[in-house]
Write a structure and sequence with these properties.
The complex is a heterodimer of chains A (681) and B (459).
Chain A lengths: L2 H17 L20 H7 L1 E14 L18 E4 L5 H4 L18 E4 H4 L7 E15 L4 E11 L25 H4 L20 E3 L3 E14 L2 E8 L40 E10 L2 E9 L19 E5 L10 E11 L2 E11 L4 E4 L10 H12 L20 H5 L4 E8 L2 H10 L4 H11 L2 H4 L8 H14 L4 E8 L2 E12 L10 E15 L9 E16 L8 E10 L27 E11 L5 E10 L3 E13 L2 E11 L20 E9 L1
Parallel strand pairs in A: 11-16
Antiparallel strand pairs in A: 1-4, 1-25, 2-3, 4-5, 5-7, 6-7, 7-8, 8-9, 9-10, 10-12, 12-13, 13-17, 14-16, 15-16, 17-18, 18-19, 19-20, 20-21, 21-22, 22-23, 23-24, 24-25
Helix pairs in contact in A: 8-11
Chain B lengths: L7 H12 L12 H8 L13 H4 L9 E2 L13 H10 L3 E3 L12 H9 L4 E3 L5 E3 L17 H10 L6 E11 L5 E12 L19 E11 L7 E7 L7 E6 L4 E5 L29 E14 L16 E2 L7 E2 L1 E16 L7 E9 L5 E8 L4 E11 L8 E2 L2 E2 L1 E10 L5 E7 L1 E2 L3 E2 L1 E2 L4 H5 L2 H7 L3
Parallel strand pairs in B: 2-14
Antiparallel strand pairs in B: 1-2, 3-4, 5-6, 5-21, 5-24, 6-7, 7-8, 8-9, 9-10, 11-14, 12-13, 14-15, 15-16, 16-17, 17-20, 18-19, 20-21, 22-23
Classes of the chains: A mainly beta (681), B alpha+beta (459).
Amino acid sequence: MNELHSGLIKNILLGGALAMGAWPLGAAPTAPPAGGDQGFFAQLWNNTSFSSYIRAETGVRTTSHQNLNNQSTNLFQGVTVARDTFVPPTLVGMPMTDGNDWDTPLVGFSDTLRRGDRVPTKSRDFNWVALRAQSEMEVKFNRQWRFVSRIRGVYDPGIYEEFDSASVADQQGTGIVGGPSELYQGTPNYFEAIGRDGKNLNPLEIAGENYMIDFPALLVEYRDGNLTLRAGNQQIAWGQAIFFRTLDIPNGLDLRRHSLLDRAFEEFSDKRVPKLSLRGTYQWNNVVIDSFVGKFQPRIYGNPNTSYNVIPVQFTVYDNYYSGGYDNEIDGGIRLKGDYGNWGWQALFASRMHPAGTFSWARSDVESPLTGTLGELANTAYAAKSPACDGTANPTLCRNSATPGEALSKTPFVPEPAGVYHAREWFAYAADVRLDGINGFNQAVKEFPDLRDVYVTEVQSYDELYNQLNTLMVAADGSYRGYIERDYHREEVYGLGLNYVTSSEVDLFNQIILNLEVQYTPERVFTAPTLSSDFLKSDEWIASLVVEKWTRWTAAFPAAYLVGQFQHRSESDLVGRHLDGYGATEEEAPPPGISSANYVVLAALQPWPGRKFVFEFATLLDVKGGILVQPLIQWNIGSGMVAEFFYNYIDGDLYGDNPNENLLNSLDWADEASMRFTYQF
Amino acid sequence: MFVRTLNKGLTRRAMLRRSGQAFLGGGLLAPLWSTMADTGDVAKAYPDELLSIEEYTKGKIKTGDDITADNVEHVKDLLEPAKYKHVAEMGRKLKVVPTTTDYMRLGPWEYQEATLRNQGKARFDDRGNVVTADGEPWIGGNPFPNATTALELFAGLTLSWGRHDASVYAVKERDLAHAGNIDYEYEAVWAELAPVGRTVIEPKPYWPEHKDKLRFNSVIFTAPDNHSGTSYLNIWPYDQHQFPDLYGYLPEFRRIRQFPTNQRFEPLVPGSCLYLSDAWAAGDPLHTWGNYRIVGRQPLLAGVSQGWNGRHPNWEHGVHGGPEGQSFFDSVVELVPEAIVAEAEPVEYERAPVSKKRVWFDARNQMPIAMVTYDRKGEPFRSFDGCYSLYEDGEHRFMDGKHPYWSWTYVHAYDFQTGRITRLEQVREIAGGHVTRVNDDSIYPEYLTRTAIGSLGQV
């Protein structure tokens, strides 16, 4: 490192660490001595090292497709949709039929709606523009003890065309009123990850709309012989498979920033959510024993209307991490890894809270009135009902609340703008996020009977729901937003792995590294496609086979790294969505589900002579018909500078009849060219 | 004396004549090995003109002089091609120091003693591994101090690279472009430990539970940031037909992964001219190379003493030469009276970029003092020259037990075809508090286990 830079950084960062109380001895530093006898602090100073980099990152959209999960780029922004209205059966006490309810037209209230007329359509050229700085400080006290701090700062100037909730504030009476204001009011919040009470999910993170600062590592390490102990905020990577996290279970993933669309060969080094934990590693002959116990930290999703948000913004999410007491949960696990020359094995057990969590319908506690002509009519009809009896049992004559708005506040459905505007949107998005549009609606009615109080009924057919949804949306004079809550569940994870390195006289078959990893989790809890609070529970098997080889094509080029991987999952997709929710379309619900998810990764890395350039190529194929292809060129410029250029090509409809049967259809919009420029000092 | 007045031409002819006599050991006036073993001094084995640059050049260059482009033609036949090119065309200077004649100053004390103690006890077994008379792994020191074949030379070198039982070298690497600018800078730790043939660390000569292994070796990069924590651990079987097990910790993966071990002709980091295969001119298992042969003997100017810069608090060397005045370390050379020139070819590496290597061994201690590799067309590919030294300079001293530390001090790797240069120097300490140390049994748990490289990797 440049001596001047080194000294400057030492002054700034060590001073900063001291100011933050990070100085492990709680004492003030002395200035580095010019020479002569070295005191304790001077010696400590000499044993302190720094490494840092700054990086500019961009992702540029290359097609007309944009994130369908966001307001301004919704699938229906430019689509005019007819919303026909029907007489609610329970409004007039019509006898319930077998799937033919909601078929009596309510004349005079039907309309057509183009979502873009309600929610401004905006277009982003850049998906991602950010400046990142990262600095690591290591203080080595002696051979046994050291302190490591890595601080990461990311700034996103938000130069995009963004949705602003103010643009819909005058609609449906109240505008958007529910959810944490940091996430649902104003312009997108790129970085704050908060629970429903507004508290940071990550305890060692400071974040605002456009910046975040956190500590991927902040720990004290003790080493003695074959024993290593680390205590503090840290990431732990387990397993041998790369890209597939078959046994890599200690940390959840952070899907903010560039989400999973960064350089594939970096794997998840920038994505694992660090956790406060104690990790112990001990090598006993050929076996490494690796264990941890730590504070549960959940997966972090991108916030509403940020570039890579994966939760449709028609939902308002309450994260119960704090309110549910999950922040007090402890994860723990142990992994044994034995290596015996050309073969090895591993076994693990962990008891953890699954970091992905589950989502279910939630009572919103947000009161917003029905407006518009039909809404006013509904208000009038509701007011005419008797408050003296049970409106859920007899919705025709009785009511439980003062207004429909109050009744709806006891349910997950709130008449607010920028929600779901019509039945087509409901079914299309349910299929896209692998939910059951019909039974999900029925589940909400079952769990929140106040919906019956406002004439909502369970349905038995697609058409019934289609008509009912359009009627409800017209009665809201716009849209409904859906409220869901996120909870977490404990699970016991078992894992086994075998690895073998081949030896052959034939070069093609020589030194091939084979890894087989299997994870078994009994009674894993999944989000039900109905968003029921009675979550899906099933035993899940995940198996991965990894085949790696380094091979020289010519004498002039260094060896290329080639890897092929296959993963089979019995219950969920790569991001944890249950397979029962797969296969619906806008026109067909409920989803038929698929029996298993299967993925293939083919990747290669080819350095140029001298490694000045490295070409990488990674593909992820969902065998049901989706593909992600990422070619990348890394240019090691020298003098501390590295530039990377890569392209993400995603086709969620490569083959097959139904794109909603493959994972990558959900990311089909994300074709983009990315560039990163790093300067290390 | 007659033998002391041999002229330069006669000496060269004598050397050339001896190069075809593979059964002979070193020495011109007397057998080198027995002379050293008897007297502890090499002086009686060579004529004066092979012990003094002044005698050799008839006064044109004297001890203490710098060899530069102005006078390099006087010693052109004492330089291997890369070093000659560096001096003649690239501004390198070589300061001449006296020839070392004391045998005990040509290696670690205990290793030199073990070489004397164990002479004559080594043989090759049926698989070509070096064993004792009763077939056990080697017991320490150079097994073939009076080597008469190239295989014996390389076998001794492969058995013990640094000639210590355990070493940690704190290393600074600078990689220079053809234009003379430094475009890559690295700091790294190189650790090696011998579980057999041990002369200092108990248990010796073997660590019983690892008696089937030859070496633990790791390289760990500590800077810059994107390479910090990049670590490789090689565990060498004693059987020299087998490739080492290779485990790697890459910062991207945050975990230890197994790597194939036959890809040894790769720069470990961008910009570097060094491959794993290049380590100590014998970086691969002995029998993965073949066609070992001695092709010549000659006196050579090489760095084997006084290369330690104890005046610098971190032992760093001054630099000079090249377009930017920083291509070469300030270098010292002495007249090595007899270098044995040996060649070998990679036979177990398909599509290796190297067709052969030529290594100049110092006949006195059989350490490599220069190496040139050739590409598959037979053109010079890369060269390596460095300097060994006792770590004492009269004023400063770094100890290895009771004796001054002996080790390498700096290395130049030069790519003939691209003009790139990699400079390595052994320093006292690098970032992260990693310090050079030797024969310390904590080196194993700290640097040479899977747990260790995991711990040293980026957290």
